[in-house]
Every structure is written in structure tokens, then in C-alpha cells.
């Protein structure tokens, strides 16, 4: 059997550093798609410039349609922990493909992936969906069905996908009305009725006293508290031990604790962030890595709760493509590869630790204040002078110099490093990143910090 050899796109006629083809595609895309993209952060709105249209991805690299090659720190926003086009995943998907792409009837791979996920995470039962959004939305419906309660609690700056009741985070323009009930918040998207938003109470991450006070006042009405066990979606925020204790106390009020591990599951350890941090949620949500780059989500937990899900129980949830054979094959190959390589998380941690130290040195040398939060292979370098590791809340993260970040991001991109195009996102390191990528990245960072410092000085003088 011959395998198609991936063909690199021909260099753009305008030269290797041109973005002509991306610009042309972006113009066509804007004519037929809102903002020209199918998910907002891809549009580069907060950093400016033209989004790069990607032609192919292999290992630690993305290649765009103009022929430029980038060291990739997005990893499709988390799923590509093994790097792109990993042979085990490619072969598993190719094998599944030859047997048909969707059945609408159960198949063995769904059972195998469910067995693997439940065993590795210490969960009784799991249900697959096709996205993380579906997983969190369904877990909340289940929590409401199980408890018979209406309200849910989330934390400011935590992202759980785009279901109506979760697009509530009360950013700076939407802060809690001082006269309103504790935790009341406004929707953060048009199209979310205030009546839905009113069922979502919002409080601060890493503020155990605020969570305790909210549970004290409203605990008997609260079905669930949903949280990111390590936040990636406000930049990386790591929970304090006191906050972890307060999360466990919500169970005393009869509320379910829902860990949204869509980003952190199989990213921070084989048992996720909850395993790493000693968290014991009632329900967990997964996505991203468990699909190995294909569309998958999942939610799971104790049998007595999961048995409320249809067809066994009264809480309805379904999906035409749920448990899709290609997606299950990619997830199985990814999780099996992770499990077979016990050192993989230590290697990811070591690379990312050296990346953090190198960024700190480069920024310090250039006189650019940064504050690095890192855990495992997740990292955010906030452009602000707080001590490293000390940014713990959305409000603190929001104090970053986003213009300074944007200038630095563009400097990195120009030097072939594709960082997350927002100050308030994590980057993701993959197992395909090696010393060669690390030193190229740090050389680029040094130059980009120096240039960004020069530009900032020019702007203020
Ligand atoms: C990405 C993400 C989601 C949403 O998953 P989608 O597959 O994009 O719907 C939910 N929660 C967290 C923590 C995420 O990082």
C-alpha cells in the first residue's frame, strides 16, 4: 500500500514572508462566514494582522498556505498533545475509515474508549458527545435532573463552552449589581435571555470566602458548581489549596461538584487536573485530547448519578454522531499512546519549565515585565509585573498589558513561532517539541521582547 506523501504548499509568488494567500482566503472567508472564521479567537482580533490559513501540520509545526512554517504552541487549543499527524493516530483513523464513517448504532470502539476513560480517571460511567460544549451542557442538565434544583454556580473568567446558561461571566462591564442578590450576573453574549442568565450565579475563582458565602446563602437551591480545575481560558490560573477545600465543601449543601476537564483532562496527567490536585468531583467533563484531534466530548461520574441519563433515566441527551468511529479511533490511539509512555508527562513538564525560565530571562533582559503562570504543559506569560505564579483571578489577569502582548505576539509570529493569539489563553506544548524547537522559540522570544520594549519606549517618549 502506498501512503500519500504530504506535499508542502509551493512558496507564495510574493515570497516566503508574504501573507498574500492567507489574505486572499481571509477576504473570501469574510464574504461567506461571520468574521471569516468558524471560532472567534482564530480571527486574531486581539492581536491584529491577518490570520494564517493553515495548509498542513506535522509534529510540532504548522505550515500556512504561503509556505511559512511555524512552531505550533496552540495544538488545536489542546487536543494535539502527541503533536500533529502522529503515526499511531493517523493509522488508527485510516483503519477506521476503511470500515465506514458513521453507523448510528453502537460499535466496539465506543466501549473500548469508555473503558479506558473510566479506568484512567476513576469514574464509573461515561457518555460521549461530539464537543466539550455538549458535555458541559449535558452534565448541568443531569445535575439539575438529579438534584431537582435550578441554579448553577460558575466562576468569573472560567469558560465551559457556549451553551446559553454558561455564557455568563460578568466581565468588567457586567459586574454584579451591588444591590442585587449575591452571585447575580448578566449574560456575556447577546441572545442569552436574562431569565436564563439569572439561573447562573457567578463568583470569583480562588476566593474560598466568596464561595462559602454564596453556598451559605443559596446552597439549598444550587444544583451544581462547575469549574475549571486549572483555568486555561483566562490565561492559566492554578487553584490554591484553600480554594480546592472550599470546592469540596459545596457537596455539604447537596450541590454536585462538576470538574470541567475539557482542557486539562489527559493534559496535566493521565488522571487529569483532578488527579493531580486531589480533587474529587461528582461529575467530570472531557473533550479535546480524548478525541485526538477529531470532534469528541464526554461527561461522566458516579453510577448513581449517570444512571439518570436516558435511556436508563429521565434526563434526555442524544447525538447523531456521538461515539463516531473515526473520533473514537483517534481518541483510543491518543490515550493508549499516552498510557504506554509513562515518562511523557515528565518530558512535557520539563520542556515547559525550561520554556518558562527562558521567557522570564528573555523578558527580564529586555526590561519587559512579565508574570508567568505554568503547570505541566500549560503556560501563560501575562504582560504585567506581578511576581511569577501569583496571578490567581480573572481580575488580576485582566490587569495585563494587552497591547504589549500583541506586539510581542507579532514579533514571535514573524520569527516562526505561533503563540496563542490572545493574552488570556494558555499555550500547549506537545510531545513533538524538542530542544531544537525550544532554542528557536527562546531566540525568537528574546528578539521579540527587545523589539516590543523598544516600541513601547518609542510610544511613550
Ligand atoms: C474548549 C473548552 C470547552 C468547550 O469545548 P468545545 O469542544 O470547544 O465545545 C469547554 N470547557 C473548557 C474548559 C474548554 O477548554
How is this structure best described in words?
This protein has 461 residues and is of the alpha/beta class. It folds into 2 domains: 20-85 and 343-431, Aspartate Aminotransferase, domain 1 (Alpha-Beta Complex); 87-340, Aspartate Aminotransferase, domain 2 (3-Layer(aba) Sandwich). The protein is 37% helix and 13% strand. It is built from 14 helices and 14 strands. The strands form 3 sheets. The chain has a 7-stranded mixed β-sheet with strand order 4-10-9-8-7-5-6, sandwiched between helices. A hairpin with a 4-residue loop joins strand 2 (61-64) and strand 3. Helix 13 (402-414) crosses helix 14 (435-460). The N and C termini lie far apart (65 Å). Mean pLDDT is 93; it is low at 170-179. The structure holds pyridoxal-5'-phosphate. Pyridoxal-5'-phosphate binds next to helix 4. Pfam families: Aminotran_3 (PF00202). One of its GO terms (cellular component) is cytoplasm. It is found in: Cytoplasm. Belongs to the class-III pyridoxal-phosphate-dependent aminotransferase family. HemL subfamily. InterPro entries: 4pyrrol_synth_GluAld_NH2Trfase, Aminotrans_3, Aminotrans_3_PPA_site, PyrdxlP-dep_Trfase, PyrdxlP-dep_Trfase_major, PyrdxlP-dep_Trfase_small.
Amino acid at each position: 500500500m502506498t501512503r500519500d506523501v504530504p506535499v508542502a504548499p509551493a512558496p507564495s509568488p510574493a515570497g516566503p514572508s508574504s501573507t498574500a494567500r492567507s489574505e486572499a482566503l481571509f477576504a473570501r472567508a469574510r464574504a461567506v462566514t461571520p468574521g471569516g472564521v468558524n471560532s472567534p479567537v482564530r480571527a486574531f482580533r486581539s492581536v491584529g494582522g491577518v490570520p494564517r490559513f493553515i495548509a498542513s501540520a506535522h509534529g510540532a509545526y504548522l505550515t500556512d498556505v504561503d509556505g511559512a512554517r511555524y512552531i505550533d504552541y496552540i495544538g488545536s487549543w489542546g487536543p494535539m498533545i502527541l503533536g500533529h499527524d502522529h503515526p499511531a493516530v493517523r493509522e488508527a483513523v485510516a483503519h477506521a475509515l476503511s470500515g465506514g464513517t458513521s453507523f448510528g448504532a453502537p460499535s466496539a470502539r465506543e466501549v473500548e474508549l469508555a473503558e479506558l476513560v473510566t479506568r484512567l480517571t476513576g469514574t464509573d460511567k461515561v457518555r460521549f458527545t461530539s464537543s466539550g460544549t455538549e458535555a458541559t451542557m449535558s452534565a448541568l442538565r443531569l445535575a439539575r435532573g438529579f438534584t431537582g434544583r435550578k441554579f448553577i454556580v460558575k466562576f468569573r473568567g472560567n469558560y465551559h463552552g457556549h451553551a446559553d446558561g454558561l455564557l455568563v461571566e460578568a466581565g468588567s462591564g457586567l459586574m454584579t449589581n451591588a444591590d442585587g442578590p449575591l452571585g447575580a450576573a448578566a449574560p456575556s453574549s447577546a441572545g442569552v435571555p436574562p431569565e436564563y442568565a439569572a439561573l447562573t450565579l457567578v463568583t470569583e475563582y480562588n476566593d474560598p470566602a466568596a464561595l462559602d458565602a454564596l453556598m451559605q446563602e443559596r446552597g439549598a437551591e444550587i444544583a451544581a458548581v462547575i469549574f475549571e480545575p486549572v483555568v486555561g481560558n483566562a490565561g492559566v490560573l492554578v487553584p490554591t489549596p484553600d480554594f480546592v477545600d472550599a470546592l469540596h465543601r459545596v457537596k455539604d449543601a447537596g450541590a454536585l461538584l462538576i470538574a470541567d476537564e475539557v482542557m486539562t483532562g489527559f493534559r496535566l496527567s493521565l488522571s487529569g487536573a483532578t488527579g493531580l490536585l486531589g480533587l474529587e468531583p461528582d461529575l467530570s467533563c472531557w473533550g479535546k485530547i480524548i478525541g485526538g484531534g477529531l470532534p469528541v466530548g464526554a461527561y461522566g461520574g458516579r453510577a448513581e448519578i449517570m444512571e439518570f441519563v436516558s435511556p436508563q433515566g429521565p434526563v434526555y441527551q442524544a447525538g447523531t454522531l456521538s461515539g463516531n468511529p473515526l473520533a473514537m479511533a483517534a481518541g483510543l490511539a491518543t490515550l493508549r499512546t499516552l498510557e504506554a509512555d509513562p515518562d511523557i508527562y515528565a518530558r512535557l513538564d520539563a520542556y515547559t519549565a525550561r520554556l518558562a525560565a527562558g521567557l522570564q530571562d528573555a523578558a527580564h533582559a529586555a526590561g519587559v515585565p512579565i508574570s508567568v503562570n505554568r503547570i505541566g504543559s500549560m503556560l501563560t506569560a501575562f504582560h504585567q509585573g506581578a511576581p511569577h505564579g501569583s496571578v490567581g483571578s480573572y481580575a488580576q489577569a485582566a490587569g495585563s498589558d494587552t497591547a504589549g502582548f500583541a506586539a510581542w505576539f507579532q514579533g514571535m509570529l514573524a520569527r516562526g513561532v505561533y503563540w496563542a493569539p490572545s493574552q488570556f489563553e494558555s499555550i500547549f506544548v506537545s510531545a513533538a517539541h524538542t530542544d531544537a524547537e525550544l532554542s528557536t522559540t527562546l531566540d525568537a522570544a528574546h528578539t521579540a521582547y527587545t523589539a516590543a520594549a523598544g516600541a513601547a519606549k518609542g510610544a511613550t517618549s
